[in-house]
Design goal:
heterodimer, A: mainly alpha, Arc Repressor Mutant, subunit A, two-stranded antiparallel sheet, 5 helices, 2 strands, rod-shaped, B: mainly alpha, 9 helices, 69% helix
Amino acid sequence: MKPCDQIDDFLSGALSAESRAAFAAHLSGCADCRSAERETHQLDALLLTLDEQAAVPTELVKRIDGRLRQAHRRRLIVRSAAAVAAGVLILALWYIRPQPAIEIVEKTPTLPVEITAVRVDFSDEVLAVPQKTDSPNVVFYWVYPNLASTTSPEGSP
Amino acid sequence: MRHEFRLEDWVPRVYRFALRLCRDAHVAEDLTQDTFLRAWRQQQRLRDAGALRVWLFRITVNLWQDRLRRGRLPVSMAGQLPDEFLGSAALPDHEPSAREDLAKALAALDALPPRQREVLHMSACEQMTTPEIAEVLGISAEAVKSNLSLARKAMRQQLSDINETV
């Protein structure tokens, strides 16, 4: 490759540092490459002029500004609606939250572990009348004074 | 936007870049508008306000590539040049010969392959660095340099007669 073929790589910065230094040395002594370099700078200036002269639609900025404002308003509305919906959802969830269950425990009577027989000796001075209860293990006695014994000659109240 | 900037400053730059991509004024308007809407929606992704230009151009390129993939190309896009750049009304401050030169330059620019045209625009008109251009287009720095080199060579060849008079 001839050194002159590297002019575009040189101008676009595509050369390595070493090659760039070598081409710079070549450039100082090559009229064709200096001309190409000058033409490239002129070309860039021409392109810049073209770009600056490009007609931008006058209403474009205003139209984009309007669209951005519209999008901003829409976002505010959506966010507000989402916040309200979230509030309603929280209230609804609170309202239908599961209630704690009431546990009904039915207790069944159990027999005493140990049955104790109690013997009661009533004296002749009383009358003991047994009463039935719901429990087979419990007996009530109605106790009355034995009038017959108190009227006996040797008895005393 | 969180990173405040003036639309008046950026809309023309994005529009001109979009015009280089698509070469159609109406499509460029749509691309510019969509670019700023997407930028507004994705504003939290821009970490560094200094990277605004690369970020905006990158969005424009993505939107343009989406259109190309979907085949949404306007009928007017068949390599034609936008009329508003060729008429004397677009270049009122220039002599007729200068207007002719600019028109030829525009024709030469638009005759370049798309990638070379995009790279040349960002380098010459936006003075963007090679890494910045690479990021916008999603290509390597080497590819940027290669395309820039080819674009300049092609433009110089096509405009050799203009350069003699500029």
